[in-house]
Write a structure and sequence with these properties.
heterodimer, A: 573 residues, alpha/beta, eleven-stranded mixed sheet, nine-stranded mixed sheet, 14 helices, 28% helix, B: 115 residues, mainly beta, 51% strand, globular
C-alpha cells in the first residue's frame, strides 16, 4: 500500500495546483459559500429566490419538457412572486425523467453537462445529466460540510461505502490515483466479513483518517464488530454518516467506537450534499443557497414543524437538466427551531428514511413508508425495525428492542396496523437481536417478497393467418390496431395456439400496418402456422393481485375487431 | 433472490370435456382453484399422462362443486376427454416458499394434500 501524503502538502500544494490546472474556481466558490452561510436567513432566502428565478426562466426557455409543461399547465414563472408560488409546478419524478429522456436537457448552446446515475442499490438506477458548471459548486459544498466537522482540504478521508469490487482495472487505477492525491481511502461495505473488517481496522490505524464517512448501518456493524472483538480503531476528528436513516443508538455506538463526534448529512447522487449537521448537532442545516427544499406532507400540502413529509428538491445549480420539485422518496421532519451556531441555513429535525416501498393489504391498498415510519415511533423502545411481506394476508414485523421496550407494545402496534390495513391482517412479530443488511451494506426497512403470479392480460381470439414470410426473422406480425386493442406491445412475448392444427408455440409480436388485417407468420412460425389457419394469440404478465385487466378481443375472418369478450365456462363462439 | 417456484399443483385430474368450439382455455371447478391456491386467468402448465402432450394456457372458473376439468379451444386438439392430467402454476417467490399440492380422486373430488 502507498503511504499517504502529508495533509498540509495536499491542502497547500496538490489541491490548489490541481484546481488551478482545472480552472474550475472550487476554492473561490468555497469562499463564497462560507460567506453565504452566516448571512441572515432573510438574505439567504433572497439569494435563493434570485437563483430560482434564473433557473425557472432558463427551464421555460431552453428545456423542451418544461417549455411544454408550462404551456400545457398555463404556468408563467415570470409572474411568480415568491418560492410559495412554486406549488403550481407539478412534481418531477424518476418515471418522468426516464420517460422524457432528452427532452429534459437544455437546448441552450452555451450549456454543457456530464452523465451520471444513481447507484441502484435500492431499485432501478436513474440515469441523468448534471450541469458542468454545477460540478465545482458541488465539490465546494461538500468541502464546506467537511469544514463544519473540523476537517479541512487535504484531511485524510476514509470511506466505508457501497463500492463495487468488480470494477474494471482501468477504473480502479484512475480512481486509485485520484484517491491517493486527495488523501481518500475507500473500503467496500459490500464486503463485511470478520476477516475483511479486521483488515479494514488495520488499514484505518495506519491511515489515521481525519474523517470517516459511511452508511449508518455499515458503520454500526463495523463498530459492533470492533467492540466485540477488541479491535482498536483510530480516532478521527469526526465521523460523517449519510445514505440512509441514522438511529440514535447507532450514533451512540459509532461515536463510542471512534471516540469522535458524528455528523449526519443528507444527499444523493442527483444533488450531492443537500443538508448537513453542524457542531451543535441540533438537526441538519439545509443548504438553502444552493437548493430549494420543500417537505411535502402525505396530504399534498407543506409539512408543518414536527410532521413527517417527503423531501422535494429543486437544484439551483443544474441548468443543463433542471430538477424542479423533484420527489426524492426520502422522508424528513422540518422544524422551526433556530441553531445557536449562527448560520442562516434552516434546520431539518431529522431524516426519516425512504417512502418508496410499500405494503399491500388484501384489498390491494398500498401502505407506504409514511405510516410505518410513524408507527415505529408510536411506542418507545424500537431501536430498529423491518417489515417483510410475503403475501397479501399479512406481514412479518421484526423489532430490535431498545430501552423502554415492553412486549405488550406489540398489542398496541398490532391495533394501529389493523386499523390502517384491515381487521384480520396477519402480523407475525419477531423480536430479534439484529436485522441483516442488504448486500450493499444498507439497511432496508420494508421488504416486499410478495409472490407474483403469471396471469393472462391479452388475447386475440379467432384470428386467421393472412400470410407468411419464412425469410424474415421469427415472429408474428400483427395489425397494429389489434395490438393496441388487445394491449400487446412490439417485441412482447406471445403464446400462439393454432385451432386448426393444434400446434402451440411461443414467439414475440411485431407490428403490421394498422387496419390492414394482416397477421403474418414470419420465420420458423410459418412452419406451424399456415395461411388460413385459425389461431388465438395470448400474452401474460406478472401480477400480485387476484386478477388484473384482461384485454380479450374477438376478431372476424378478415381480422377486423368485433368486440371485447368476457369469457365464462362453456361459452361458445 | 426471487426464483420461479412451483406454487400450486393439481394431481390426477381427469378431463371431463374437451371442445374446440368452447372459448377459453382450461375450465376448473372453482373449489379446486381455491384449494390449490390458483386464481382465475392465471397461467398454468398442463401435462397429459395419457398421451404425453404438454401445454400452457390459463384458468377460467368452472361451477363450484361441478368437478369440471375442461379443455377448450385449440388445446382440445392435444388433450381429450378422459385423459389424466396434472395442472401446475408457478410464481416468483422467495426461496423458502412451499407449494400447495392437491390430489383428486377419479371423479375430480378433492382427496387430500400431497407432499
Amino acid at each position: 500500500m502507498f503511504p499517504s501524503l502529508p495533509e498540509s502538502l495536499v491542502r497547500n500544494v496538490v489541491y490548489p495546483v490541481y484546481r488551478g490546472f482545472r480552472k474550475d474556481r472550487v476554492l473561490d466558490i468555497l469562499d463564497e459559500l462560507e460567506h453565504n452561510q452566516f448571512l441572515p436567513e432573510r438574505e439567504i432566502e433572497d439569494l435563493k429566490w434570485r437563483k430560482l428565478s434564473v433557473l425557472l426562466e432558463a427551464a421555460g426557455r431552453h428545456v423542451p419538457y418544461y417549455r411544454d409543461l408550462f404551456e400545457r399547465e398555463g404556468i408563467d414563472p415570470a409572474a411568480f412572486e415568491s418560492p410559495v408560488d412554486m406549488a403550481a409546478i407539478p412534481f418531477l419524478t424518476k418515471e418522468v425523467i426516464r420517460g422524457e429522456k432528452r427532452k429534459m436537457i437544455s437546448k441552450d448552446p452555451l450549456r454543457r453537462g456530464y452523465p451520471s446515475s444513481t447507484g441502484g442499490s435500492m431499485g432501478e438506477p436513474l440515469h441523468f445529466w448534471c450541469d458542468t458548471a454545477a460540478g465545482p459548486v458541488r465539490r465546494a459544498n461538500t468541502m464546506r460540510g467537511y469544514r463544519w466537522t473540523g476537517s479541512d482540504i487535504g484531511g485524510r478521508q476514509a470511506m466505508l461505502w457501497g463500492f463495487h469490487l468488480d470494477r474494471p482495472l482501468k477504473d480502479r487505477i484512475s480512481e486509485g490515483a485520484k484517491s491517493f492525491f486527495n488523501n481518500i481511502m475507500t473500503l467496500s461495505s459490500f464486503d463485511m466479513t470478520p476477516e475483511t473488517m479486521r483488515r479494514y481496522a488495520a488499514k484505518l490505524r495506519r491511515f489515521r483518517p481525519s474523517i470517516v464517512i459511511g452508511y449508518p448501518s455499515a458503520l454500526t456493524v463495523f463498530s459492533e464488530f470492533c467492540r466485540g472483538a477488541g479491535v482498536r480503531l483510530p480516532s478521527p476528528k469526526a465521523v460523517i454518516t449519510g445514505g440512509e436513516r441514522l438511529f440514535p443508538h447507532q450514533r451512540d455506538l459509532i461515536e463510542e467506537a471512534f471516540h469522535a463526534d458524528l455528523f449526519d448529512r443528507y444527499g444523493s447522487r442527483e444533488f450531492s450534499t443537500v443538508a448537513h449537521e453542524c457542531s451543535e448537532h441540533k438537526g441538519l442545516h439545509v443548504f438553502n443557497d444552493l437548493f430549494h427544499v420543500e417537505v411535502i406532507h402525505e396530504s399534498g400540502r407543506a409539512a408543518q414543524s414536527g410532521e413527517i413529509g417527503e423531501l422535494v428538491i429543486t437544484d439551483l445549480s443544474n441548468l443543463y437538466m433542471p430538477f424542479i420539485r423533484y420527489r426524492t422518496g426520502d422522508l424528513a421532519m422540518p422544524t422551526e427551531r433556530k441553531c445557536p451556531c449562527g448560520r442562516g441555513l434552516p434546520l431539518l429535525e431529522r431524516i426519516e428514511g425512504r417512502s418508496f416501498d410499500s405494503i399491500v393489504t388484501p384489498e390491494g391498498k398500498k401502505v407506504g413508508g409514511f405510516f410505518w415510519t410513524w408507527l415505529s415511533r408510536a411506542v418507545p423502545g424500537i431501536d430498529r425495525f423491518q417489515i417483510e411481506q410475503r403475501d397479501r394476508a399479512g406481514i412479518i414485523f421484526r423489532i430490535v428492542p431498545g430501552e423502554g421496550w415492553r412486549d405488550d407494545h406489540m398489542e398496541v402496534l398490532a391495533g394501529k396496523i389493523r386499523e390502517n390495513c384491515c381487521e384480520n391482517f396477519r402480523i407475525d412479530f419477531q423480536v430479534v437481536d439484529d436485522i441483516p443488511l442488504t448486500p450493499a451494506g444498507k439497511a432496508k426497512f420494508i421488504i416486499s417478497n410478495i409472490e407474483e403470479r403469471l396471469v393472462i392480460k391479452s388475447k386475440i381470439h379467432k384470428a386467421h393467418i393472412s400470410g407468411d414470410a419464412p425469410e424474415e426473422n421469427d415472429c408474428l406480425r400483427i395489425d397494429a390496431k389489434l395490438m393496441e386493442l388487445s394491449n400487446v406491445a412490439a417485441f412482447e412475448k406471445i403464446l400462439i395456439v393454432n385451432a386448426t392444427s393444434g400446434a402451440r408455440l411461443e414467439t414475440f409480436a411485431l407490428e403490421a400496418e394498422s387496419g390492414s388485417g394482416d397477421i403474418i407468420a414470419c420465420g420458423a412460425v410459418s412452419r406451424l402456422c399456415r395461411p388460413g389457419d385459425e389461431i388465438s394469440v395470448m400474452a401474460f404478465t406478472w401480477s400480485t393481485g387476484e386478477s388484473g385487466d384482461f384485454s380479450n378481443i374477438l376478431v372476424d375472418e378478415e381480422n377486423r375487431f368485433v368486440r371485447y369478450l368476457t369469457e365464462k365456462a362453456g361459452d361458445r363462439i | 433472490m426471487k426464483r420461479l417456484l412451483l406454487k400450486s399443483m393439481i394431481l390426477g385430474a381427469t378431463v371431463t370435456q374437451a371442445d374446440l368450439r368452447y372459448v377459453g382455455s382450461i375450465t376448473i371447478d372453482e373449489d379446486l382453484i381455491d384449494r390449490a391456491n390458483m386464481s382465475e386467468h392465471e397461467n398454468v402448465h398442463v401435462v397429459d399422462h395419457t398421451n404425453g402432450h404438454r401445454l400452457q394456457t390459463y384458468v377460467i372458473k368452472g361451477e363450484r362443486g361441478s368437478c369440471v376439468i375442461g379443455m377448450n379451444g385449440a388445446a382440445a386438439h392435444l388433450i381429450k376427454e378422459g385423459d389424466e392430467i396434472d395442472i401446475m402454476a408457478y410464481s416468483w417467490s422467495s426461496d423458502d416458499a412451499r407449494p400447495m399440492l392437491i390430489e383428486l380422486d377419479s371423479g375430480n373430488r378433492f382427496k387430500g394434500y400431497a407432499g
